[in-house]
User: Which sequence fits this backbone?
């Protein structure tokens, strides 16, 4: 399971393992750690789309773990986010934030993102390697989502550290501690904004809570935490993975460098080729279902390997080849169905601006060392680089 999902031995390149599993069966039972229990892993594209849009697959983690002896101590605001909810609760919560992330709404952030990207690139040293992850892919999305939510500049670095801890693989205590820290921080920020209201998205959510009483206090904190964490972690890996894919392919890099206006059209293929979310968030069967040709009993987790589905040759011919002319709009990197990533337009805008700026300002950019020596984060959920040293 670890190998197929981007674990220790195949963190750098999980796709051969995914392909081998898919060829045996696109939906199959896999062991879940040392507990003796089993989950079902989905590696086929058609089966993944079905699973992501099937109401019999619940995301209500509270219902699944009720009565089970778990050792986790996640703060409720982190454990019970909108991502861990089913309709009608999910529908109500998502409706409150969808308007802030439409393509039209995020377009208003273009000047800010462009200016911020320029300021970050101004700091890149002309001599010696630059870490594209630490010096661009990490700070840019953090600063953008913090700006959107109204998080003070002085707190933004700490917010990023908490987020990294939440995604730390194999260290549940670290994640649990971070969940309480970030939830407590957001509770304090909400209290502060009640005293001194502003115009941020968080201020608008507070007004919804206090004015129309459509949000409980726990829901308000939970939404704030989800937007804060999910709003930048995956975009960081989107940028890093896309940059690496181009740096490893000089012809594609040159093509976009010579025609930066083509960057927006290349984003879907870059997302398909190396998805920043390796495995979708938790789902479990509420009744026995048939997924593809596989019968799955009730009450078991189903893990959808988005990266594997995006490399299914039945949907994308020659899937292991980056093809900037491919129509990759059907990729599943942002999910599918009612839980599709609400922040997708913002992530696309940040990636477009950042990649275009890097290629334009640093036409000679290249890897500072062999790609096979790069270190990948060892986590089942997200897929991204620890660092990406480049020479400019």
Assistant:
């Amino acid at each position: 399971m670890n190998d197929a999902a981007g674990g220790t031995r195949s963190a750098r390149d999980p796709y051969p393992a995914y392909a081998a599993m898919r060829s045996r069966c696109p939906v199959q039972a896999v062991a879940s750690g040392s507990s003796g229990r089993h989950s079902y892993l989905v590696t086929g594209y058609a089966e993944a789309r079905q699973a992501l849009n099937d109401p019999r697959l619940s995301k209500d983690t509270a219902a699944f773990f009720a009565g089970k002896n778990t050792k986790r101590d996640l703060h409720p605001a982190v454990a019970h986010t909108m991502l861990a909810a089913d309709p009608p609760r999910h529908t109500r919560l998502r409706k409150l934030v969808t308007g802030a992330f439409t393509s039209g709404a995020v377009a208003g952030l273009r000047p800010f993102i462009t200016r911020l990207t320029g300021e970050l690139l101004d700091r890149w040293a002309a001599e010696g390697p630059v870490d594209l992850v630490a010096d661009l892919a990490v700070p840019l999305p953090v600063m953008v989502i913090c700006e959107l939510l109204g998080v003070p500049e002085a707190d933004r670095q700490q917010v990023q550290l908490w987020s990294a801890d939440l995604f730390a693989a194999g260290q549940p205590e670290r994640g649990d501690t971070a969940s309480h820290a970030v939830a407590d921080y957001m509770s304090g920020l909400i209290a502060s904004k009640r005293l001194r209201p502003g115009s941020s998205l968080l201020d608008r959510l507070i007004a919804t809570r206090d004015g129309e009483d459509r949000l409980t206090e726990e829901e308000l904190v939970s939404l704030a935490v989800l937007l804060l964490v999910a709003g930048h972690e995956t975009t960081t890996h989107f940028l890093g993975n896309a940059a690496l894919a181009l740096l490893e392919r000089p012809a594609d890099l040159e093509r976009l460098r010579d025609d930066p206006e083509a960057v927006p059209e290349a984003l879907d293929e870059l997302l398909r080729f190396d998805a920043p979310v390796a495995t979708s968030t938790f789902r479990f069967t509420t009744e026995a279902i048939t997924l593809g040709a596989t019968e799955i009993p009730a009450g078991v987790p189903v893990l959808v390997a988005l990266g594997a589905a995006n490399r299914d040759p039945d949907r994308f011919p020659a899937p292991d080849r980056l093809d900037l002319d491919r129509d990759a709009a059907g990729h599943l990197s942002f999910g599918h169905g009612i839980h599709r990533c609400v922040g997708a337009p913002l992530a696309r805008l940040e990636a477009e601006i950042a990649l275009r700026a890097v290629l334009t300002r640093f036409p000679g950019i290249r890897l500072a060392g062999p790609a096979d020596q790069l270190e990948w984060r060892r986590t089942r959920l997200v897929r991204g680089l620890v660092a990406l040293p480049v020479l400019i």
